[in-house]
Amino acid sequence: MTAHPARWRGGLAGRWWTLAAPGYDRAVGLVGWHRWLNVLVADVTSGRLLDIGCGPAYLAPGLLARGIGYAGVDRNAAMVARARRRITPSAGNGLVVRADATALPFRTGSFDIVLAAGLLGLLDLHSRQTALREMARVTRGEIRLLEPFRRPGTPPHTLRAHVIGLVPDRPLDLTELAEAGLIPEVHGPPLLAGVYSRVHALPRSGGSGR
């Protein structure tokens, strides 16, 4: 029996992330990704933060050192294993779980900030809407994104889509956030070759649900 094309492609993408896990931090650091992750949380001084699609959890040590409760989520087992090695018992109140962004294993209103960086552009439109609604559900504060957004003058596809054929990025429209019950606000000019944008969003209900 021939595998469904989407499942086949998803399986290959999952194996690619497993192979990429050991060198992921170094690779994205070379293109300036870590710098913008740090900017995304620079003003966070307290509360609980959920990092969706956390990969090897680059942000965890710094946030935990500032007394912030950190939770990371990733669906790739190799990434989760590397992330957990970053969180030691003495580091603070941190955990990493293996889960999907479309079905977060947390109660409504569990986090002050929900973060996603380089994740939503990898999802199909239906999964992206589900993930955005899940983010709105689990936050009691705001959502912060570093994602490929369509803006005037930005290229239609990200560099990652050209380099990694198995992991195409699909740029977001701000209207997608509105459809998920969010009020978005763009912060600053496009980043990283003019493709990515920092966007903060509040649920219309003020947090804790859709």
Structural class: alpha/beta
Low-confidence stretches: 1-10, 158-167
| Rg (C-alpha, Å) | 16 Å
User: Percentage of helical residues?
Assistant: 25-40%
Query: Any idea how many domains?
Result: 1
Word description of this protein:
The chain is of the alpha/beta class and 210 residues long. The protein has 8 helices and 7 strands; from the N terminus they run αααβαβαββαβααββ. The chain has a 7-stranded mixed β-sheet with strand order 3-2-1-4-5-7-6. It has helices at 5-20, 24-30, 33-40, 60-65, 77-86, 125-138, 159-163, 174-179, and strands at 48-52, 69-74, 94-98, 111-117, 139-148, 182-191, 196-203. It starts with a helix and ends in a 7-residue tail after the last strand. It is globular, with a radius of gyration of 16 Å. Mean pLDDT is 81; it is low at 1-10 and 158-167. It has one domain: Rossmann fold, CATH 3.40.50.150.
